[in-house]
Every structure is written in C-alpha cells, then in structure tokens.
Amino acid sequence: MEVVIVPDAEAGGRLVxxxxxxxxxxxxxxLLGVATGSTPLPVYQALAATAAAGGADLSRVRVAQxxxxxxxxxxxxxxxxxxxxxxxxxxxxxxxxxxxxxDSTAPDVAAACREYERALAAAGGxxxxxxxxxxxxxxxxxxxxxxxxxxxxxxTLTERTRGDNARYFGGDPGRVPRHVITQGIGxxxxxxxxxxxxxxxxxxxxxxxxxxxxxAARCPASALQLHPHATVVADEAAASKLTLAGYYRHxxxxxxxxxxx
Length: 261
Hints:
Its EC number is 3.5.99.6. With 261 residues, the protein is α/β, with parallel strands linked by helices.
C-alpha cells in the first residue's frame, strides 16, 4: 500500500481532495464512495473550497453511500443519508439524483442490500472509495470477524462501536442503533482506488495492524493489503505505531502517486 504521512487532518484532506480533482479531470461523472464521521470532513471541505474557487467541476459527480443505520426513520438527522446530504451533497452543490444508497427503511432489508449491490454494478462501480478506520480496525461497518469476501449486508454493531458512535446520539450508547447495512469487504475491494484516512492517536493501533500486521479477519482493514491500488493517508498521531514510518516518509515523501487516476 501507499502510506503517506501528513502533518495533520487538514493536510490529509487537501491531499485526498487533490486525488478526486485529478480523477474528475478525465472522468467528470466519477462515482465516489463516501464515508461519514469526522475523519473525512476535511476532504469534503477542501473539495467544496476548490469547486468554489473554480478549480473543479463537480456538476456530474455521483456519490455512493458506504453504510447506513437500520431502524432510523427517513430524515432522521443522524441517519447517514441525512449526514451525507449536509456534509457532502449540499456543500458540493449536488442534488439527490447524484446519490446512490441502500434503502434501510425497506420492509425487506436483506433484499434492499442485494438491490444496492445491483445498483452499484449498474452505475459502473466505484471509482474512488474513501474510508475511515475504526479503533478496532473495522472499515464501513465490517466489524472484526467479517468475511473478507463479504457483500453488502446487515450487520450487528459491537458494543465498542456503539460506544464510539454515542457522541452523535447525545453520548448515550443505548440510542445508537444495533443494526446497520454496510458494503461488504468484498464490495469495497471492487472500487478502482481505495483511500483510507486515519487521524488521531486512537487510530494508531488499528492502522498499524491494517498496514503492517497479518491479513486477518480480526482487523478487517487489513484486507486492503489485497487491493492493487490502495492509499493510506495518516496524520502523525495515527502513524505513530507504524514501524516502517521512516520508510514511508522516504518513499512517498508526503505525496502519493496519483498517476494511476
């Protein structure tokens, strides 16, 4: 994997936004896989600023949702669709027609998962998938133990993840839904380019396991070792447990190879 160490989250956001802009230069209708949470926010902010300054045309961009809570009513402010409307679609000037996501309110959620897989394939697949990493190494909501070949499906959240997400629900883990829809690891690995962002010291152990540890279901993010074009962008705190940090700094010198895009 390409591992690029940046000074802080804002620098990482600008770097990843550069990759998106480069992609749009030759594929203006690219399908971007988008994640929620605080980690990718600097990417969306940098993209919006670039577009506002005339540095990127986002008018034909499409976005695909990585995961969603099950059991929240449509329009709930903490549903991931609502979050993406606030943090991605509106700032980038995109309408609902640009959005692909699973129907978590469907009477048959398992069927909705299968339909989302078909929709992603019909859209031509994800060109660039943006990911965060959980403190236990999960990507999307693929918790430890998830099959590395898994597809979009229903998952039950661990208490650790519900505790991590409680800050969005008034600090009460009991208000965090127990079930989610998530793209599977196998689905994620089908994206043409995967970019994993990691910031903060609480992600250091998970990132080290994902990048330098064995390929193992106990760290779902380690599956990215199998991807032919995976880029990790980590700030100094998140990179603090990487034993090869000096090597990454030397080889990538603060900038990955975007020539593939």
